[in-house]
Sequence to fold (883 residues):
Amino acid sequence: MKWVYSFGADNAEGDASLRNLLGGKGANLGEMASLGLPVPPGFTITTEVCTEFYKNDRTYPEGLKAQIDAALIQVGESVGMKFGDKSRPLLVSVRSGARASMPGMMDTVLNLGLTDETVEGLATLSGDPRFAYDSYRRFIQMYSDVVLEVDHHSFEEILETYKEEHDYFLDTEMTADDWRTIISGYKKVVEDALGKPFPQDPQEQLWGAISAVFNSWRNDRANTYRRLHHIPESWGTAVSVQAMVFGNMGATSATGVAFTRDPSTGDNYYYGEFLINAQGEDVVAGIRTPQALTKESRLKMGDEEPSMEEAMPTAFAELCAVFDKLEKHYRDMQDIEFTIQDGKLWMLQTRNGKRTAKASLKIAVDMCKEGLITEEEAINRVDPHSLDQLLHPSLDPDAERDLVLTGLPASPGAASGEVVFNSDEAERLAQEGKNVILIRVETSPEDIHGMHAAKGIVTARGGMTSHAAVVARGMGRPCVCGAGDLKIDKSEAFFTVGGRKVEKGEVVTIDGGAGKLFFGAVPTVQPELSGDFGELMGWADKVRRMRVRANAETPHDAQVARDFGAEGIGLCRTEHMFFEADRIVAVREMILAEDKKGREAALTKLLPMQRSDFEALFKVMAGLPVTIRLLDPPLHEFLPHSDDEIEEVAKSSGMDAQKLKDRAHKLHEFNPMLGHRGCRLGVSYPEISEMQARAIMEAACNVAKETGEKVTPEIMVPLVAKREELAFLKERIDCIAIEVLKENGIKLDYLVGTMIELPRAALTADAIAQDAEFFSFGTNDLTQTTFGLSRDDSASFLPDYMRQGIFERDPFVTLDPDGVGALVEIAAEKGRATRPNIKLGICGEHGGDPDSINFVEGAGLDYVSCSPYRTPIARLAAAQAKL
Ligand code: PEP
Ligand code: MG
Fold:
């Protein structure tokens, strides 16, 4: 069995096609090497080893050691070094790399192979003892943290104290002797903590590091990240072992990270940061402030330190050529790590770069126009979920602001919330329904859950590629980084900026796009979508088969939906129209009426109100189909609660208050979701359905006459379980419709259909379709009734199900394909068997969820209907589902 794949020195055993086996990093290192790019040689241990490791109680498969030994010798030979050799010691990095990128989630060790002996060899060989000891102390610190699990604060403290005592400001001021002293301190920390010395056998170091990477696949932060990003545990991680190149070999060496385009805006220029005389982790950790890559960026940021373009023009030119080659090759924006060792460029990593929604859109559209990708590829490049970021509000430019601090604009978006200082608290408060802004000195992978729970993140330290910035962008959270003036008090009760103090729990507003934090809640405005958005949506519209409608009741929501490209209304929940102050009394009168006469009196009051509601909707949707659902309230939602409310109804209806109270009491249900709702209400009180049918048809006639537009009402009966329920109501609806059309003397098409929300309806859909001209899948109720899971109460225990892996997804968010989805498929098939042209749609919350949309494309539905803000997400997801 082949467990190890070598790469480098212009050849590679693996390439990008072996991503599942070699992980993203390993596959791309192979690919870069085979493209002839300067990649330090190394090898990748496959993800299959990870699988075997866990299958066999964390032990390694046979033959692995021999393959690693051989690969290591080969790496050494190609750079003229030998692992563990005293005079020419080969040093390696050991990194994780899963199939999907999990930034910062897994552990990395650099400079491995250094010992008290080999460090002397490195010092002689490089002619630079300072560099050798600097590398050794870095290694001890990293290895102790990642592999030996010794608290890294102890190391930082030693260094900080030493620098203070010697009046040093920067690490680069430290001499070889200084580092030697630090190293003895570090080694003592390890020995004190573990009761044995820091390992001096390079083989032991190597296996320790490999095991740490494999073990880290199941550490808490990796588990959290996988859960949030739906990455299966079974994929495993690969481990890449690679010859070290050094960015910390003096003024002609450097290290950096770069994106081939701006990951925040998508603008097409080289974007990145680098540090002279440093190693990779210095850039990401935000300990020193990195310098800009290009002169233009430097000038834009107002930096004084020279850019790479100015400081190292030859290496910069070489790097630019590599950027172009990689972007053309991968046909996507690349996120790159590089090192310059003594003037020579080395590529350490490339991957498709994480980006904001805005950048993702711009890059997809630009690359299509540049001829790099097709329209269809562009459609597939944008994650529909990420559009959420673009469709949400930003700060009102006219609102008053009270600026607290300024930092780097790390991730765009605006949000307000209470100040919190730690991730556990952020998570707890968010679970209580509070909006929080997480404020930290810096973030680490341990903060993932807090960052996810927070509406926005602010850090005192770190650059645009720091952990906080990268993770926040990926999550779509606004983020301000590197706010150097921010001081968090040790008590975590307040922070100060300049002389100003802000307490925990006070409300602040973050503007990630501007890199600013304001005091109080600053009002926000709706986003203006860029031309790129319209262009991509246009491409998606050309491709998709399913129509996209919106769930909307108010003219405002309907207008928002239209502006976002909705092609009709798929669900108007009429009960939502009844809550307004001027109607609720009449609605209560209707519900509490003792007899038909009382009910009709109330209905007479409601009819004109409903008619004008529907007229407004038909007008906004000008010519597009509008599905109006008959009343489906869980009755208790409308019952009067206080004496004042009872009194109000009594006054309006002329009924006795005590009688009303008794009747309200009688209407109380133990299980309203399974109670007197939906079509059951119409079966008991047909006059309610008749009033609504009349209001709908009269409104349609009025608008058709007034505007000359075609109006096509679709009247929808909710919560049908038996064909007979629908037949009973359809007969009455048809009667009224014919009557109204006759009264108005016009012809107008209308449809009567039903929601499929109960398993029985799905299973007998062939019978129901004899009366139904359309089906709309109410997957909220269908999920509730299929699982027997309460829509309202299950949020308290669903997290347990997710944690235990019993549910991978919340079934109220993403359609359960095996159960609820199967019912949808059965009903669609049976419905079509009876009525081949039956119109089929979905209007549960799943109608705006990309995975569910993908499922219903497969089931052949005609349209999805979702909340107005999700319309663009649905348009894009429907196109992707079709491709
Ligand atoms: C549904 O059940 O999916 C549906 C759309 O109806 P409601 O959410 O109003 O019950
Ligand atoms: Mg429902």
